[in-house]
C-alpha cells in the first residue's frame, strides 16, 4: 500500500486550495479607524479583536507590571458598575470579553450575540474607556498577580524563559517579565495604573479584526462607539533590543526529575528579504504540526524528550531564533548535543529537496484550514495588521512560500543558524552540565 | 484576571457547554462500526476522527499506561506504511493529526482539506488491524512516554497532588489510576502487552467514526464502506465491565508537601452521578449547581463571597465532570490569601456551602446562567472540530444520539428546585476526600535564578 499512498500525496500538490476561500473587507470607520472584516452571517454572533500596539514595553522602569495589572483591572468595574455588577451584566448578556497583556501589545477580544450586541458594546466601551480602578479591586487583583509571580518563580518553564530574557536583553524592557516583580507590583499606585491605561490604550495605535454576523457599515459604527473616548495620540515605543547573549549553557538549579531547556540566538526581521526562506527553514528544523528534524532526531529516534520545537520569534524589537524542550536530568546533556548537531548540519549542508518539498506542501495545505471560525479569523486579521501585512497577503502567502528554493534555504540556513552562538538555559538538576560552561 | 491565576495554578475552569444539535446523521456499517457525520460547509476542510470505546480504565491490572502507550505506538509502522509515515502523509497533504487517551476513550484525528478524506480513512483503517509492534520502536517510545510523564506530572506539584487525590477518591474503580500510568508499571510495559491490548479492543465494532466539515453523509458512507467496511468485526469483544465503587463510608485526607508549591490550596472531592443514557436530569442539575457555586468569573457564590466580599480567597471554584462512563467527581477548590491557613480555607468552603443549602439560589444569577447555557449552543457552532470532539466523547461515554441531542433541552428545563434537590443530596454531610497541597513548613533555601 506504500505506493498508492505516495501517489496520493503527490496528487495533492495540484488539488490543494491555493488560497483561503475567505473574503476580507478593508473597512474604515467614520472616525477613521481601520479594520478588517470577514462577514459571515451563518452564526448569530460577532467576534472582535483589538490589538493596541505597545504593550508591557511601555511600562516605566519604576512601574514594571503596571500595564499587566491595568489590563487585569479592566473587567473589575467600569462606568457606574462596580466589579460584581459589571461581571453580572456581561454574564447576563452571554457576551465574552478578554483583556490580555503581552510584551508588544495589549489585546482586547470580544464575542457578542447579535441579539444584544448594542448593550454588550456599551459594556465593552465602558471597560476600555472608563474603567474605575476602584481601590478594593486594585488590591484584589494585585494579590492575584503576586500569586502568579510566585507561581512563575516555581515553574521551570517560566524560569527558563525569564532567565533567557534577563541574560539576553540587559536593560531593555524585554529583559523584564511583563508581570513585574513582587516588589514592583507591591509598589504600584493607582496613578501608575492610570498612566499605564493612558499609554497602552489609544486610538492612534490600534488594529482591529472582526468576523461574523455584521456588515462593514455596522462594524465601523461599532468600533467608533467602543473606542470613541480613547486618546488619539500614542506614546513613543522603546527602541530595538540588542541580543547580548553569546553561546553557552546556563544552569539554574531546580528540584525536579526533569530539566527544561530554553535555547536560541538572534533571529531575522519580518521584513527581511529572506524571511520566507527562514520561515520554511524553521518548519523543517523544528516547526509544529510536522515531523521536523528536531522531533525526529530527539524524540522519535532516541526517546530523549516528549516534545521539542523551534520557533522564529517575531518580537517587534528583537527577533529571535528560539527553541524549547524537556528531558530527564540524565538525558538532557545528550539532547543538547543532538540539537547542536542538527543546527550545525543544517547550517553546513542545508536541507534536502525532499525536506523542502514536504515542508512547503504542509505549509501551503495547512494555511487555508486555519481560517476556521469567527474567533480564530478575527485574531488572524488583527495579527496580520499588527505585522503591517497588506490585505492581499492571504491570497499571495502560499505563492511566497512556494517560491522558496533549495538554494534560498541553503543560504538562509548558513546565515541564520549559528550553532556556536546557541545559548541553552537549563532549569533542573541536569547531570554532566555545569553552570556557565 | 481570575482565569490567569487559575492557569498558573493548573486549575482550569470548566466551561458551561451544551452541544449544539447541528446537522448530524448517524448510521452503522455492517461490521458494527458507528458513523456520525456533522455537515458544515463554512470551510473546505474536514475533521476525521476514529474513537475506540476503550481507555485507561479498561487496562489489565499492573499495566497502567498501556492504553496511552498503544495510542503512541499507533503512529509506527504497519504492514503497508513505514514508521512515522502516517503523520508524514497527513502533513504532505497539508493536514494536521494527533491522538488522545482518556479513562474512557482513545481517539485519533486528522484535520485536512475535504478532498483528502478517503486517504485519511485508508490509512486509519490500515492501522486499526495492521499496526506492527516492533521491539525496538516499543523500547524507544517507552522512553518518550516516561519523558511525557516527567514533563506533565513529575515536574508539577499540582499534577502530582491531583494524581494522589484521584487515587484516594476512588477506592476500587480504575479512575483512581493515572491515564499516563504509574512510573514503575510504565517502565515494565512490553511489546506483548501492547499487542494484547490492541488485539482485544481495536476493532470496527468497538469504533466510532466521526466526520465533521465540508462533506455529505452519502459521501462519507461510500468512503467508510470502501475503507472500513472490509474489516471484520471482532467476535470476542469484551464488555466494558470495570470494578465499581463500594459505598464511600469514611472521609479521607491527603496531605502533599512539595517545595515547588507557590500557592497552597485545599481541594475537597466527592463522588457524583454522571449523565446516563435516558437519565440525564440529575447531571444537568449538578452542572448548574457547579456553575452557581463556583463556575467561571467572580459572579459565582464562592468567588463573590470569598474573593470579593470577604477577601479571604485568591481563587475559589467548583468543578463537576458530567460526562464519563462511570460515576465521577464533584470538587471544590480554595486558594486562600497569604496568611490564612488551609484549615481556615477548608472551613470557609463548608461555611459557604452551608449558607447555600440554607439560603437557596439567587433568581437573577440562575437566569443568567441559563441564558449562558443557551448562548453556548450558538458559540459552539463556531468550531466544527470542537463539535466533532464533543460528539465523539459523548458517544464513547455510552450516550446515544438522542441523549446528546436532548441534552440542551434537559439543561434548559432544570429548575431552581431541581438544583437544590441535587445540592442537598450531594452536599449534605457527604463522604469526601480533603486534600491539602502545601509548601514545606520550614522554607528551604529560596529557589535561585
Blueprint of the fold:
The complex is a heterodimer of chains A (437) and B (449).
Chain A: H1 2-15, E1 25-28, E2 34-39, E3 45-53, H2 66-73, E4 77-78, E5 81-82, H3 83-93, E6 96-101, E7 105-113, H4 117-129, H5 135-152, H6 156-169, H7 182-187, H8 190-200, E8 206-212, H9 216-227, E9 248-253, E10 258-266, H10 275-286, H11 293-300, E11 308-313, E12 320-328, H12 332-349, H13 353-369, H14 374-386, H15 393-402, H16 406-416, E13 423-428
Parallel strand pairs in A: 2-8, 9-13
Antiparallel strand pairs in A: 1-2, 3-7, 3-8, 4-5, 6-7, 10-12, 10-13, 11-12
Helix pairs in contact in A: 2-8, 4-9, 10-13, 10-16, 11-12, 12-16, 13-15
Chain B: H1 2-9, E1 24-28, E2 34-39, E3 45-52, H2 66-73, H3 85-92, E4 96-101, E5 106-113, H4 117-130, H5 135-154, H6 157-169, H7 183-186, H8 191-201, E6 207-213, H9 217-227, E7 252-257, E8 265-272, H10 281-294, H11 301-309, E9 313-320, E10 328-336, H12 342-359, H13 363-380, H14 384-396, H15 401-413, H16 416-427, E11 433-438
Parallel strand pairs in B: 2-6, 7-11
Antiparallel strand pairs in B: 1-2, 3-5, 3-6, 4-5, 8-10, 8-11, 9-10
Characterization of the model:
The complex is a heterodimer of chains A (437) and B (449). Chain A is an alpha+beta fold and 437 residues long. Chain A has two domains: 25-227, Metalloenzyme, LuxS/M16 peptidase-like (Cytochrome Bc1 Complex, Chain A, domain 1); 248-374 and 390-428, 2-Layer Sandwich (Cytochrome Bc1 Complex, Chain A, domain 1), CATH 3.30.830. In chain A, 45% of the residues lie in helices and 19% in strands. Chain A has helices at residues 2-15, 66-73, 83-93, 117-129, 135-152, 156-169, 182-187, 190-200, 216-227, 275-286, 293-300, 332-349, 353-369, 374-386, 393-402, 406-416; strands at residues 25-28, 34-39, 45-53, 77-78, 81-82, 96-101, 105-113, 206-212, 248-253, 258-266, 308-313, 320-328, 423-428. In chain A, β11 and β12 (320-328) form a beta hairpin. By secondary structure, chain B is an alpha+beta fold. In chain B, α2 (66-73) crosses α8 (191-201) and α10 crosses α16 (416-427). Chain B has two domains: 2-11 and 244-438, Metalloenzyme, LuxS/M16 peptidase-like (Cytochrome Bc1 Complex, Chain A, domain 1), CATH 3.30.830.10; 24-227, Cytochrome Bc1 Complex, Chain A, domain 1. Chain B has 16 helices and eleven strands. A six-stranded mixed beta sheet of chain B has the order 1-2-6-3-5-4, with helices on both faces. A five-stranded mixed beta sheet of chain B has the order 7-11-8-10-9, sandwiched between helices. The two termini of chain B are 26 Å apart. The relative contact order of chain B is 0.18. The chains are: A alpha+beta (437), B alpha+beta (449). Chains A and B meet through α1, α3, α5, α6 and α11 of A and α1, α3, β5, α4 and α5 of B.
Amino acid at each position: 500500500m506504500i505506493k498508492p499512498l505516495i501517489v496520493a500525496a503527490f496528487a495533492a500538490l495540484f488539488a490543494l486550495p491555493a488560497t483561503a476561500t475567505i473574503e476580507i473587507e478593508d473597512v474604515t470607520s467614520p472616525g477613521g479607524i481601520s479594520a478588517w472584516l470577514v462577514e459571515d452571517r451563518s452564526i448569530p454572533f460577532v467576534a472582535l479583536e483589538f490589538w493596541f500596539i505597545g504593550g508591557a514595553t511601555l511600562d516605566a522602569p519604576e512601574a514594571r507590571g503596571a500595564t499587566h495589572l491595568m489590563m487585569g483591572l479592566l473587567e473589575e468595574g467600569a462606568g457606574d458598575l462596580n466589579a460584581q455588577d459589571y461581571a453580572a451584566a456581561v454574564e447576563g448578556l452571554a457576551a465574552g470579553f478578554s483583556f490580555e497583556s503581552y510584551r508588544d501589545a495589549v489585546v482586547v477580544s470580544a464575542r457578542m450575540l447579535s441579539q444584544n450586541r448594542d448593550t454588550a458594546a456599551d459594556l465593552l466601551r465602558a471597560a476600555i474607556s472608563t474603567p474605575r480602578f476602584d481601590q478594593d479591586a486594585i488590591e484584589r487583583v494585585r494579590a492575584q498577580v503576586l500569586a502568579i509571580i510566585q507561581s512563575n518563580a516555581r515553574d521551570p518553564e517560566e524560569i527558563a524563559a525569564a532567565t533567557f530574557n534577563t541574560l539576553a536583553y540587559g536593560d531593555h524592557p524585554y529583559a523584564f517579565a511583563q508581570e513585574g516583580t513582587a516588589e514592583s507590583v507591591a509598589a504600584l499606585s493607582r496613578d501608575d495604573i492610570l498612566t499605564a491605561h493612558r499609554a497602552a490604550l489609544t486610538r492612534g495605535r490600534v488594529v482591529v479584526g472582526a468576523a461574523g454576523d455584521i456588515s462593514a457599515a455596522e462594524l465601523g459604527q461599532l468600533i467608533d462607539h467602543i473606542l470613541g473616548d480613547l486618546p488619539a495620540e500614542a506614546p513613543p515605543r522603546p527602541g530595538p533590543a540588542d541580543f547580548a547573549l553569546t553561546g553557552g549553557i546556563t544552569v539554574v538549579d531546580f528540584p525536579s526529575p526533569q530539566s527544561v531547556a530554553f535555547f536560541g540566538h538572534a533571529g531575522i526581521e519580518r521584513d527581511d528579504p529572506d524571511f520566507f526562506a527562514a520561515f520554511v527553514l524553521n518548519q523543517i528544523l523544528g516547526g509544529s504540526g510536522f515531523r521536523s528534524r528536531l522531533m525526529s532526531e530527539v524524540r522519535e529516534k532516541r526517546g530523549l524528550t516528549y516534545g521539542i520545537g523551534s520557533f522564529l520569534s517575531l518580537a517587534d524589537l528583537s527577533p529571535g531564533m528560539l527553541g524549547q524542550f524537556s528531558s530527564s536530568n540524565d538525558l538532557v546533556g545528550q539532547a543538547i548535543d543532538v540539537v547542536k548537531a542538527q543546527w550545525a548540519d543544517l547550517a553546513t549542508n542545508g536541507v534536502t529537496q525532499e525536506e523542502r518539498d514536504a515542508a512547503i506542501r504542509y505549509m501551503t495545505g495547512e494555511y487555508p484550514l486555519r481560517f476556521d471560525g469567527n474567533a480564530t479569523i478575527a485574531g488572524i486579521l488583527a495579527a496580520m495588521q499588527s505585522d503591517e501585512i497588506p490585505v492581499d497577503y492571504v491570497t499571495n502567502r502560499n505563492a511566497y512560500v512556494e517560491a522558496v528554493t533549495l538554494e534560498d534555504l541553503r543560504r538562509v540556513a548558513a546565515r541564520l543558524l549559528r550553532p556556536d552562538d546557541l545559548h541553552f538555559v537549563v532549569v533542573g538538576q541536569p547531570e554532566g552540565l555545569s553552570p556557565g560552561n | 484576571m481570575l482565569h490567569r491565576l487559575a492557569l498558573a495554578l493548573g486549575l482550569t475552569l470548566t466551561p458551561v457547554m451544551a452541544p449544539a444539535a447541528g446537522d448530524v446523521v448517524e448510521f452503522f456499517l455492517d461490521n458494527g462500526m458507528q458513523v456520525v457525520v456533522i455537515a458544515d460547509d463554512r470551510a473546505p476542510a474536514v475533521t476525521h476522527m476514529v474513537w475506540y470505546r476503550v481507555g485507561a480504565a479498561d487496562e489489565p491490572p499492573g499495566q497502567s499506561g498501556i492504553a496511552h502507550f498503544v495510542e503512541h505506538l499507533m503512529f509506527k509502522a504497519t504492514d503497508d506504511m513505514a514508521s512515522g509515515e502516517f503523520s508524514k502523509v497527513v502533513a504532505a497533504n497539508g493536514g494536521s493529526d494527533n491522538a488522545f487517551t482518556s479513562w474512557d476513550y482513545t481517539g485519533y484525528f486528522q484535520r485536512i482539506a475535504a478532498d483528502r478524506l478517503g486517504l485519511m480513512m485508508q490509512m486509519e483503517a490500515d492501522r486499526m488491524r495492521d499496526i506492527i509492534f516492533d521491539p525496538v520502536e516499543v523500547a524507544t517510545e517507552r522512553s518518550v512516554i516516561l519523558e511525557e510523564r516527567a514533563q506533565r506530572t513529575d515536574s508539577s506539584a499540582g499534577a502530582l497532588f491531583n494524581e494522589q487525590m484521584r487515587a484516594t477518591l476512588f477506592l476500587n474503580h480504575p479512575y483512581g489510576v493515572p491515564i499516563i500510568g504509574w512510573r514503575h508499571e510504565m517502565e515494565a510495559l512490553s511489546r506483548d502487552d501492547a499487542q494484547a491490548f490492541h488485539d482485544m479492543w481495536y476493532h470496527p465494532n468497538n469504533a466510532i467514526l466521526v466526520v465533521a466539515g465540508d462533506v455529505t453523509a452519502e459521501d462519507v458512507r461510500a468512503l467508510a464502506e470502501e475503507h472500513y467496511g472490509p474489516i471484520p468485526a471482532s467476535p470476542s469483544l469484551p464488555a466494558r465491565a470495570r470494578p465499581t465503587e463500594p459505598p464511600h463510608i469514611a472521609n479521607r485526607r491527603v496531605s502533599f508537601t512539595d517545595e515547588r508549591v507557590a500557592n497552597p490550596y485545599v481541594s475537597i472531592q466527592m463522588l457524583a452521578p454522571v449523565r446516563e443514557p435516558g437519565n440525564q436530569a440529575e447531571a444537568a442539575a449538578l452542572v448548574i449547581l457547579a456553575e452557581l457555586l463556583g463556575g467561571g468569573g467572580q459572579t459565582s457564590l464562592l468567588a463573590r463571597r470569598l474573593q470579593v466580599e470577604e477577601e479571604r480567597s485568591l481563587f475559589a471554584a467548583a468543578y463537576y465532570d458530567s460526562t464519563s462512563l462511570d460515576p465521577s467527581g464533584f470538587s471544590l477548590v480554595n486558594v486562600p490569601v497569604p496568611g490564612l491557613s488551609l484549615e481556615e480555607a477548608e472551613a470557609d468552603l463548608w461555611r459557604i456551602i452551608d449558607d447555600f443549602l440554607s439560603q437557596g439560589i439567587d433568581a437573577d444569577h440562575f437566569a443568567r446562567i441559563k441564558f449562558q447555557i443557551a448562548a453556548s449552543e450558538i458559540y459552539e457552532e463556531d468550531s466544527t472540530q470542537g463539535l466533532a470532539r464533543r460528539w465523539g466523547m459523548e458517544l464513547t461515554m455510552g450516550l446515544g444520539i438522542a441523549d446528546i441531542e436532548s441534552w440542551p433541552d434537559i439543561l434548559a428545563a432544570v429548575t431552581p428546585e431541581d438544583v437544590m434537590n441535587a445540592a442537598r443530596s450531594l452536599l449534605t454531610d457527604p463522604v469526601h476526600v480533603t486534600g491539602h497541597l502545601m509548601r514545606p513548613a520550614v522554607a528551604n533555601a529560596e529557589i535561585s535564578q
